[in-house]
Design a protein that fits this description.
The protein is mainly α and 259 residues long. Helices cover 70% and strands 5% of the residues. The chain is built from five helices and four strands. The strands form two sheets. It has a two-stranded antiparallel ribbon with strand order 1-4. A two-stranded antiparallel ribbon has the order 2-3. The protein is elongated.
Length: 259
């Protein structure tokens, strides 16, 4: 491709690419360089960007959202299992008034599971934040979608879960695994089950919002496809009309021909 030479980044318009005349299917490669007073110069790795149309980008983002949704669905299923396992431990303690080594190992397994979910939910939140920024900077949707729906109703609840209830239950299960039992075990386990209920409820709400976002993206893509199809039909109709007028003019200008 053609090189546009070095650019000095000194204001917000430095990254305005419209004047480059980039077309769908093209590529943009750039590298950043900086220097100090010594002078010493350092360069970043070459970054390569693919120029795509809005429909293609929305489809790609939808695919990412679907993969993330599936990850959250797996976490949700396991959290339901964790709740039932917690209630089961509560019933065991009610009968025995003590926990066996096997019970403590089950608590240790639950702690490991919860900590893994903390990492997974954090990852999903980060990925949705990246998707939100893609939507924002590429002007795919209105602000109420990328800020309202994604940031406020997906990213923030997931961040809350990973730093709040999920982490809290992991700590609780860890305490049980270490044999640090509270005064009222049954009541404490019931509270843990209540926290797990909250986790399940929030995950269910987030998943419903992600599904809504996916459907919205599918509708946008279809509307854009219809628009492009109609635009092409209009252009073809105009061309046929112009061609027919030209034919009429040439017919009228034929010498010696009687109308």
């Amino acid at each position: 491709g053609r090189s546009i030479g070095p650019m000095v980044l000194d204001d917000e318009d430095a990254w305005a690419l419209k004047h480059l005349g980039l077309e769908v299917g093209g590529r943009l490669e750039f590298q950043l360089e900086s220097s100090d007073f010594r002078p010493q110069t350092g360069a970043s790795q070459v970054v390569k960007l693919q120029i795509v149309d809005a429909s293609t980008l929305i489809k790609e983002l939808n695919t990412r959202q679907q993969n993330l949704r599936q990850e959250l669905e797996r976490v949700l299923d396991k959290e339901r299992e964790t709740k039932y396992a917690t209630l089961d431990r509560m019933n065991v303690f009610a009968d025995k008034k003590a926990f066996t080594a096997e019970d403590l190992e089950q608590f240790a397994a639950l702690e490991r599971r919860q900590r893994s979910f903390v990492a997974k939910v954090q990852f999903v939140a980060e990925q949705f934040e990246e998707i939100r920024l893609q939507m924002k900077y590429n002007q795919l949707y209105e602000e109420d979608i990328y800020n309202g729906l994604i940031r406020d109703e997906v990213v923030k609840p997931l961040q809350y879960l990973s730093t709040g209830p999920l982490l809290a239950t992991a700590h609780k299960f860890g305490d049980y695994a270490a044999g640090a039992l509270p005064g009222d075990v049954a009541d404490d386990l019931l509270k843990i089950a209540g926290t797990l209920d909250e986790i399940v409820e929030i995950l269910s709400q987030v998943l419903s919002r992600v599904v809504r976002l996916e459907k919205f993206g599918e509708i946008i893509v279809r509307v854009k496809q219809i628009y492009e199809e109609e635009r092409k039909l209009l252009e073809d109709a105009k061309k046929i009309y112009v061609d027919s007028i030209s034919d009429d003019i040439f017919e009228e200008e034929k010498p010696g021909e009687k109308k």
